Amino acid sequence: MADNTLEKLNSALDKLSDTLDTEAVKTALGLIPDTLKSPIIEGLKQVLEVVKTTLNDLKDKVASIVNLEDLFSTTTELLEAAEGLAPDQSSTFNEVRSVVQTLQDVPEAQQEIENILTKIDAIVTKLEAL
Questions:
Q1: What angle do CA 13, 15, 17 make, to 5 degrees?
Q2: N or C: the chain end with fewer CB closer than 10 Å?
Q3: Looking at residue 3, what is its pLDDT?
């Protein structure tokens, strides 16, 4: 996964974890009714589960991703060439380029993915304790 994507995810998870550890947040969540607190907690848990599922899927498919390196390289070259022909489509090209770059970086990012998965589990545990 692109370092930038993993870095952003890691940073966001750190901030969420730190926020959940603050007394002000714990106190505030303890004072609001469950009808308000539950949707917040459950929503966060659902988002974290989606991220975790996606990371696990990528991690499990690393061997397949490595075998697609030539396709990724060719796709990147095609995107660069096509951008000159259709500059008004640069946002579409950038989206595809981002996905390709993310997939190219997955094999090198396995340990970072593992660390993020562990962090997600710890945050879910904190959420369930609130």
A1: 65
A2: C
A3: 55
Determine the Cα–Cα distance for residues 113 and 125; give it in Å rounded to an integer. Answer: 19
With H, G, I as helix, E, B as strand and everything else as coil, classify residue 106.
coil
Single-letter residue type at 94:
N
What confidence score (pLDDT) does residue 126 get? Answer: 95
**Are 113 and 48 within 8 A, CB to CB?**
no
- With a cut of 50, which residues of the chain have pLDDT below it? 1-2
pLDDT in tens, 21-46: 999 999 999 999 999 999 999 999 99
Identify the residue whose tokens are 């904190």: 126
Please tell me what DSSP assigns to residue 2. -
**DSSP designation for 33:** -
Question: What is the model's pLDDT at position 4?
Answer: 77
**Whether the Cβ atoms of residue 14 and residue 120 lie closer than 8 Å to each other:** no
Cβ-contact 3, 110 below 8 angstroms = no
Q: Is the pTM higher than 0.90?
A: no
Q: If you write DSSP's letter for every residue of 37-75 in order, what string do you get?
A: HHHHHHHHHHHHHHHHHHHHHHHHTHHHHHTTHHHHHHH
